[in-house]
Amino acid sequence: MGMLDQLLYGFSIALTPENLLYVFIGVLAGTIIGILPGLGPMSAIALMIPIAYGMDPTSAIIMLAGVYYGAIFGGSTSSILLNAPGVAGTVATSFDGYPMALKGQAGKALAIAAVSSFVGGTIGVVGLMAIAPSLASFAVSFGPTEYFALMVLGLTAVVSLGGRNLTKGLISAVVGVIIALVGIDSQTAITRFTFDRPELYEGVEFLIVALGVFALAEVLVMLNRRGKGGVRKAVTSLRLSRGELARITPPTLRSSVLGFFTGVLPGAGATVASFLAYSMEKKIARDGKTFGQGNLKGVAAPEAANNAAAVGSFVPLMTLGVPGSGTTAILLGALMVLGVQPGPTMLTDNPGMFWGVVASMYLGTVVLLVLNLPLIPVFAKVLNTPRTMLLPLVVVFCVVGVYGLSFSVFDLGLLAAFGVIGFLMRRNDFPAAPLILGLILGGLMETNMRRALQISGGEWSVFVTEPISAGLLVLAVLSLLPSLVRVLRRRPAAGTPAEVSTPVDGSEERTPTPRG
């Protein structure tokens, strides 16, 4: 009953006209920013800290929280319509969302994203409200060995997105990790893979790789088709049948829970949660082979997970003062600028802020749904744009997004290079998903591996002697087993007469790789 009283107290704060306005402003600004690659939630929050400086601390954090989950929600729109994920947490949404758009089901894909995001956000808020203190105490027990093992699990799980070809999936993941290592080593100050180019000293930006490998590569694929296939102009309604709602409900609920627990772990966040949810659903779904071809579950799972994780990342931020992601690190800075010190005493010292933010998050998910469902037909009209206009617009979209990062022409050259790489990967059936996740997790893996080795005095056995770390590594190995078994089953049959009739490219029963 005490918790219910506190939640009602939180709603009494969040439902004031002033705070309701800040929820709406934050959510609307976040959605618009999420749609535009180049301005993710981190940039938006950083830009709005000066605006928040003169505000009441509770109102300020309510508005900034709205920007955060609004941006993750909005990022799904460009992922589905243009295959141009500007926010890392919505990359997995494009794997099935964009193929749905190509089939003329853009409205349906956007509606699924809206509903799944709402459910994920709601479950995340319930989890934040109910078990924040106990989850925070579990999360703090994670050390560098456990985080390294968690990142390895995330990478191996997503390799399954490479269809039936395990080798190509692993190659993509390794290339992603290598790209993540470009730049100055933070511990030794030695430059790595920079080819003496000062522009590479700070590493390769995620946005350059994502827009190159996804959006620009898609432009090249369309040009290569010379008008064959591509975007269909017929856009179906956004109405979901009872059967479709029944199909997406279980993956949405499962992914929401997985996303929330992933978001609670500092360093994991919405991106890892969305990839893990997509990978999990592809493995357990009866129609897992159709993932990457426009499966409804492939849109619902990552959208539910990334929104639940966005809310979950507030658990370590509010209860421990530990940022759970890059965006919550910016929020931590904003709280300190406002004179608030988050930590274990926040629930007792500043309950109004904690419960006010929790209540505002639930209101924010409702506002997102009400705001975005009517706009879906407007967004879907992007697909009616003639190809002669759409392709240049996508290129401009990419160039402006990348050039706005650092105003560097060199970055535009990198964008073009990754566009060509993405195109060649498509032509040769190399999945882009493991590459992107390798890029995102590579730096975190290296940092945590080094810390673990420093603590253990260089003993590699520390990764298998710690129970949580060992358990996660066992799960990582098990996640690769289905692909390994398929490879071993195919080998004995390599010379049989049945194999002679396989296609010229040597593929057998090829499963189209996820578009991404």
Q: Can you give a write-up of this model?
A:
Residues 507-516 have a biased composition (Basic and acidic residues). The chain crosses the membrane at residues 20-39, 51-74, 110-132, 138-159, 166-184, 204-223, 257-278, 320-340, 352-373, 393-418, 430-448, 460-481. Keywords: Membrane, Transmembrane, Transmembrane helix. Residues 20-437 form the DUF112 domain. This protein is an all-alpha fold. It has one domain (2-490). It is 71% helix and 1% strand. It is built from 23 helices and 2 strands. A two-stranded antiparallel ribbon has the order 1-2. Helix 3 packs parallel to helix 14. The chain starts with a helix and ends in a 16-residue tail after the last helix. The model is unreliable at 229-233 and 494-516 (pLDDT under 50).
